[in-house]
Amino acid sequence: MSSPREVRSVKQAEQEDLFFGQAVILWARWSVIVAGIVIVLWTSNTVDLLTRTMPFFLVLMALNFFLHGRYVMGSPLNRAAVTAASVVDLVLITAILVLWPGAHGLRSDFFVLYFPVVFAFALVFTRQIEVAYTGLAMVAYAAACFLTDPSIITNGIEAKDLVMRLIVIAAMGFLGNYYFRIQRGRLARASAGAKAA
Amino acid sequence: MSTTHWDPKAGHLLSPDGKWYWDGVTQEWKAATDQAARPRPAPAAPPAKPQPEHGLSSFTGTVRSEDLGFGQPVLVWARWILIGTGLLLSFWSPSDPTTLKVQLAAIVALAFGNFYLHVQLLRGHPALDTVVYGASLADIGVVTALVLVQGGFPSPVFIFYFAAVVGISVAFPTWLTAGYTALAVGVYGVVSLATATSDELPAIFTRLLMITAVAVCGNLFARSEMKRRAEAIRVHDEMLDEIEQKGGIENVQPA
Predict the structure, then answer these.
(1) pLDDT band at B23 (very low <50, low <70, confident <90, very high)
(2) CB A191 within 8 A of CB A7
(3) In sequence order, which residues have a C-beta less than 8 Å from that of residue A180 and are 6 or more positions away?
């Protein structure tokens, strides 16, 4: 069977994918913000702690208000801006793992914040960009763990936990992008008139 | 100004007096009476009932949802990741033989089931909906069993819930995604609350919220894609109608 003819140009297809997929990234970021703010309000006992932890999420919140506002008004940002905002997500999550009062690095429970962010990104961008972004997330997390506790390398149990988490971050990126590519094929077939796409 | 008009019921262009219609196939005007007098084609005979199959192939019958069929590869690969990582980590500094036995038994059982589902996909026969739903329940069950064996909240394998929920969120309809996610979150929430200290409650909250967030993102994307496909099919159909109205593809001006 011949492959369906894509009626959109590559650039057009990427722009459409970005427009429709951006909502997923925005919602993933909102989930991170909600989780962070609830944790801050729940666990902070002093003003000092509140003022040290809240800014991380206020920055993310301001960023997402701007991006979501643009999206709702029908003028979402371009690929470069969305990619930059997603990189800011990774930087902030990594900063939380390193700088958050209490447990740091591998012992911090905030590593789960990477999962929805990497997954949502993988649903929107092409494979090369997704691989780079997922790789960046993995490197950032591994670096945060090694920086805060270099003894991980020699501790078998901790190294095992780190590898397991890195594999799941990679899985989030791979599975999200795999589904994205399946959907691209279906959309191309639908555009070519195949009802059963 | 054109005085012809489109008859949406008949699906043809009609002449101003309504006595002629444009046949897009033969590319000529025909008397409308011909169309009225022409007997309607007999309804297509119902498809022959599939013969009951025996053996493992009977699990790949006819009750399949299209969207689930396209989401099945993601489910199968998510499960392979779970199996591969589980095996690797089971042999990496195992704690005690009982835990290792439970882990290996669960993972090997999952691997056999997934191999069967993968083979069916490769043969072009996605499994029955109910089999896929059952397999996803097994995923949640296996991850929960591993978490329980390793002491509940302190167990690091809870992250496999994420891989399981990713597959479910893109393959299943919204109400089923919500049900499966609620099941995973509920079961893991109960296990964690029973085995964690009060200091660890914020961590439990974060984990459960992130599992839910992944499910919401996946299903939101799947629904958005469904709408885009429906829109693409509608645009394609309208274009075909327009071509027919304009008297064939040779009369259509390029945009």
Answers:
(1) low
(2) yes
(3) A17, A21, A122, A123, A124, A125, A130, B221
Chain A interface test: which of B100, B192, B209, B221 (most A C-beta within 10 Å): B221
Query: Average pLDDT of B211-229?
Result: 87
Whether residue A81 lies within 8 A of chain B, CB to CB, comes out as no
Beta-carbon contacts of residue B71 (< 8 Å; ≥ 6 apart): A179, A182, B167, B170, B171, B172, B222
Picking from B210, B211, B249 by the largest number of A CB atoms within 10 A of its own CB, the best residue to mutate is B210
Q: What is the 3-state secondary structure (H, E, C) of chain B?
A: CCCCEEECCCCEEECCCCCEEEECCCCEEEEHHHHHHCCCCCCCCCCCCCCCCCHHHHHHCCCCCHHHHHHHHHHHHHHHHHHHHHHHHHHCCCCCHHHHHHHHHHHHHHHHHHHHHHHHHHCCCCCCHHHHHHHHHHHHHHHHHHHHHCCCCCCHHHHHHHHHHHHHHHHCCHHHHHHHHHHHHHHHHHHHHHHCCHHHHHHHHHHHHHHHHHHHHHHHHHHHHHHHHHHHHHHHHHHHHHHHHCCCHHHCCCC
The dihedral built from the CA positions of residue B200, B205, B210 and B211, taken in this order, carries a sign that is positive
CB-nearest partner of A119 from B70, B214, B222: B214
- Kindly determine whether residue A20 and residue B224, on different chains, have CB atoms separated by under 8 Å: yes
Looking at CA atoms only, how far is residue B222 from chain A in angstroms?
8
Dihedral, CA of residue A148, residue A153, residue A156 and residue A158, to nearest 10: 20
CB-based contact B68:B171 (threshold 8 Å): yes
Q: With b meaning 16 or more CB within 10 Å and e meaning fewer, what string describes B211-241? A: bbbbbbbbbbbbebbeebbeebbeebeeeee
- Answer yes or no: are the C-beta atoms of A5 and A192 closer than 8 Å: yes
Token duo for residue B228: 């885009």
Query: What digits encode the pLDDT tens for the residues B170-197?
Result: 888 889 999 999 999 999 999 999 998 8
Amino acid making up residue A86 = S
Q: Count other Cβ atoms within 10 Å, centred on residue B48.
A: 6
Report which residue type is found at A96.
I
Region of B62 please: left (phi>0), alpha (psi -120 to 50) or beta. Answer: alpha
Say if pTM beats, i.e. exceeds, 0.95.
no
